[in-house]
Amino acid sequence: MTVHGANSLRNGPDEQGRFGIFGGRFVAETLMPLIIDLEKAYREAQADPAFKAEVEFLGKHYTGRPSPLYFAERLTEKLGGAKVYFKREELNHTGSHKLNNTVGQILLAKRMGKTRIIAETGAGQHGVATATVCAKFDLPCVVFMGATDVERQYPNVLRMKMLGAEVRAVTAGAGTLKDAMNEALRDWVTNVESTYYLIGTAAGPHPYPEMVRNFQSVIGEEIKAQHFEAEGKLPDAVVACVGGGSNAIGTFHAFLDDPSVKIYGAEAGGHGVDIENGHAASMTGGRPGVLHGNRTYLLQDADGQILEGHSISAGLDYPGVGPEHSYLHDTKRVTYAPITDDEALEAFQLCTRLEGIIPALESAHGLAQVMKVAPTMRKDETIVLCLSGRGDKDVESVGRYLGFNK
Amino acid sequence: MTTRIPARFARCAAEGRPALVTYTMAGDPDLATAQAILDALPAAGADIIELGMPFSDPMADGPGVQAAGQRALANGQTMRKTLSMVEAFRRKDADTPIVLMGYYNPIYIFGVDAFLVAAKAAGVDGMIVVDLPPEEDAELCIPALKADINFIRLATPTTDEARLPTVLNNTSGFVYYVSMNGITGASIKNHAAVGEAVMRIKAHTDLPVVVGFGIKTAEDAARMGRESDGIAVGTAICNAVLGSLDNGKATAGTVGAVTSLVAGLAGGVKRAKEAA
Fold first, then answer.
1. Could you say which of A33, A300, A305 has the minimum Cβ distance to residue B159?
2. Domains in chain B: how many in total?
3. What is d(CA B48, CA B230) in angstroms, rounded to the nearest whole number?
4. Are residues B59 and A186, on separate chains, in Cβ contact within 8 Å?
5. Digit-coded pLDDT (tens) for A294-334
6. What's the ipTM?
7. Looking at CB atoms within 10 Å, which of A116, A246, B113, B154 has the fewest?
8. How many domains does chain A have?
9. Shortest CA distance to A387 belongs to which of A233, A253, A177, A219?
């Protein structure tokens, strides 16, 4: 899909699904024919103006796009540096950026004639967004979710059930996103003829990383236009949290070829990156390996066994990352930095008290990075955070951390 | 290619029966017991041995093989220990082919070139790596062929006529036909379709075709061995290990639990062609 200059960072992936050495199609043979079909169907959809029009129509009337670009005045004042803007993806229908992707993929699943949808979820945001489009398009939906996450994100479990989805709690491993993805892949292999696997992040075998990025790229494109309108120029920095990295790549992609724009990804630093298995910062603390259909940075031991990792945020609690981020990390276009659980909790509270916006714990990691960077910038500069999700799902667990008693 | 695999299939064919391919997990439930199991397999009737390389995230495996891998890893199994098991086995058995089976990441992290040298030196004949389809041949398949190790590919019910040549290209040793869309340990629903698929593959290749996934008993072995050149059994063996454990530890009955199951399966493959 070469549409940019030869030296553009936006040309990936190549025909093998690679971003540099990252990406690829590391799946069992059972799935390979389907993945080839999926790519073919996606290319056809991309070339079909009716598909694009339908995605845009649903984006506007169902999701509620464009989401606002909001000047966070009190936070800007408090940090004392660059002007802080929030891209309000948490105002989308279902409360996060995830619907941008599920709307696109459900239309693709329909085109492919699939009759059953499966998905994995960590925080439950993607599970809810999938259950939502399955309700709208009348398709049965099974969501795999780690048992630990079912516990810590229970409000989203209820939402998925009310939307008609079946939620399967996965008890293997640490009961988090990695285990949910393993189980979803096992289901997919078993029901490959009927089932569409609606992956929620910009990871997995080609063409998922590219496809999810493209559906999420609307975030960065809107930021660019809205920021021009507000400030008459490009932003000086953009920031997003990175678990698998779908909101981040959606935010970053439009700016990759604008060298004046600094780009920061906030990884889950958990208890600290020097604590083995105590964080989920795969680029800061991991190395390249192969898991879940792609080569990417992974948290793993010396023998190539994948570690469980840890983050207070279920949506970032994953030992890998989308392959395009690994590429952007190696090429140094994007600076990826770890944010600890405590820093994220502090940002969560600051945002809530100063702006009256309760952010998702995932997005609070991005905000914590803004809190580090904004004060080092000039007052005439701007920094945009993708506020990827709202924090309603987190109030109970954050309340427990903060010692709020009933 | 000078691996032990073609000679072993030729011998089974001369005896008028399919080969019994057994899968055990390296290091399950502990290194010493796993070695004792491995060493006892040929006498129990295994013709070809698949040795599982445990991996934390076995996406194509059902609960039986998953649990076996977790037991092995919990007891400290590593790739070096797995290769050392093959080396120790080879000191006693120069003829029985060994195929390492698992996932790519532990090999990638070991280093592909270093791994192939070590595997060949240890006496490994072939490899089955579940998450390396033909599209990723440059990673390991081509280097393995150059290192004189068979790269055995999986063909599945979704591998259609148009794709079959892609799958068979660069495959050597044998073709492993996965009897169903699913994970290890599930049940075969349509036996007739499996037979047809084997015939379809054999029309495209002279390589032996082994059927695996869903074969649990001597009866299954006899039935699935009629049209194929071999049958593979894994989950049933992992479950036999599990059934013999006491509080997760090996007992005096662990090796015997495996060898008696394998002996029964060996009886099944002997009956396969008679029944036809």
1. A33
2. 1
3. 9
4. yes
5. 999 999 999 999 998 899 998 898 999 999 999 999 999 99
6. 0.95
7. B113
8. 2
9. A219
